[in-house]
Specification:
- This protein is α/β, with parallel strands linked by helices and 390 residues long.
- The chain folds into three domains: 140 residues, Glutaredoxin (3-Layer(aba) Sandwich); 60 residues; 158 residues, no CATH class.
- Helices cover 57% and strands 10% of the residues.
- The chain is built from 14 helices and eight strands.
- The strands form two sheets. A six-stranded mixed β-sheet has the order 1-4-3-2-5-6, with helices on both faces. A two-stranded antiparallel sheet has the order 7-8.
- The C terminus is likely disordered.
């Protein structure tokens, strides 16, 4: 049976309540938000302060919020529970709503799977009569919740249309997930054996049926260009990847396309230099137009490192340094960043800064010194320039 708007809310079956009083059933007359989340989920952490605000704002209207941690990643349930408790103490010591923990899979089965919800964070709103009123991303609650509280949401055409679209989208995504697992069953052994031709065959099967899957599109280009070093086939694939990224006006797509050209971990010497720089220029300019350095757009740390590498290798060292510094400063922005990701990104950006400056660079407690042989392409152009001048 599909869990959707108007369905009776499933039971609450959690192993432990880590915060707040236990809740065994939904009380008539109250509205509940059941929020599925995890400590490793960056977007989940980002939305939690807003959920705190909603609980405070609407508590006198009968709202009660409970977070359900049913997707923690740890070797044992005890370790997952310990991680959760420590994380909540560190990040949200004054949390004003309940947190339940479940490692049995029961809550996911009853709520997430039956509603075709495939990712977290996901919010379920339970109306005053114990029926589902809304299922979706928590950032949609600002518009929906007041209408649920005043009783107008479930009877609206907007709610019915949104719920139908959500289910259709969830079914499509679940079909794609099943297909992806089938393809990964072929791809993983090929990658582990470094059988790049077989890996390309598996990826091309995925791209044919899921052309909008960014992971497979990027891997297709990477395998052809950097594993097989097949420019004849790989360059047209990359050109189309870059064009689609620009047409989508999607920063992540553009950065992943740009990375195929300017990842310093790769030997890019086999690329035609003029086309590589031209593609890099177009992609970089689109990224900066979409998320300009002086703007308040978040997550600059995710794309600016690759853009900076393009500018460095094209000869504009000052611009490269400026972008790395902007990226580092964005790490201290208002959006919470998981500690492990922040540490990894900081180390990578500081290393790039040291290489660009040619001297030791630091950001906070993280320091790096220039690496020998970085970057190969930049040094090659510098030698070519010196030979011409000589």
């Amino acid at each position: 049976m599909v869990l959707r708007m108007e369905s009776p809310a499933p039971p609450i079956k959690v192993e432990n309540w880590l915060r707040g009083e236990p809740l065994t059933s939904f009380q008539p007359g109250k509205v509940y938000i059941v929020e599925f989340w995890a400590t490793w989920c960056g977007p989940c952490a980002e939305v939690m302060p807003h959920l705190v605000e909603l609980q405070e704002k609407y508590k006198d209207s009968g709202l009660e919020l409970l977070g359900v941690a049913a997707c923690e990643q740890a070797p044992t349930a005890n370790e997952a529970r310990t991680t959760l408790d420590a994380w909540l103490t560190d990040k949200f010591s004054n949390l004003n709503y309940r947190i339940g923990f479940d490692s049995t899979g029961e809550m996911n089965k009853l709520w997430m799977d039956s509603s075709f919800s495939v990712g977290i964070p996901t919010s379920f709103v339970v109306d005053r009569d114990g029926h589902i009123a809304f299922i979706g991303h928590p950032m949609e609650l600002d518009d929906v919740l007041p209408k649920v509280l005043n009783g107008s949401w479930r009877t609206s055409d907007e709610a019915k249309a949104a719920d139908t679209e959500r289910i259709d989208s969830g079914r499509r995504e679940m079909r794609e997930r099943t297909l992806t697992e089938s393809i990964l069953a072929k791809l993983r052994p090929a990658m582990e054996a470094e059988d790049w031709a077989k890996a390309v065959s598996a990826v091309e099967e995925a791209v044919a049926v899921m052309p909008d899957d960014l992971r497979f599109r990027a891997l297709h280009a990477e395998l052809l260009l950097h594993k097989l070093r097949n420019l004849q086939t790989g360059l047209p694939v990359l050109r189309q990847f870059a064009r689609d990224a620009i047409d989508k006006n999607d920063e992540q797509w553009m950065e992943w396309a740009l990375r195929q050209l300017f990842d310093p971990a790769n030997d890019n010497s086999h690329f035609p230099s003029a086309e590589r720089l031209a593609m890099g220029k177009e992609l970089s300019e689109h990224i900066l137009a979409l998320n300009p350095p002086q703007g308040d757009g978040g997550f600059k740390y995710l794309s600016y490192g690759t853009v900076a590498q393009y500018y460095y290798e094209s000869g504009n060292k000052d611009r490269a340094i400026e972008l790395i510094e902007v990226a580092l400063n964005s790490l201290g922005g208002p959006q919470p960043i998981p500690d492990e990701l922040k540490q990894d990104v900081t180390s990578t950006l500081v290393e790039a800064l040291a290489n660009y400056k040619g001297e030791k660079a630091c950001y906070g407690t993280v320091c790096a010194t220039p690496q020998d042989g970085f970057p190969i392409a930049s040094k090659r152009r510098q030698r070519s320039k010196q030979q011409k001048e000589g």
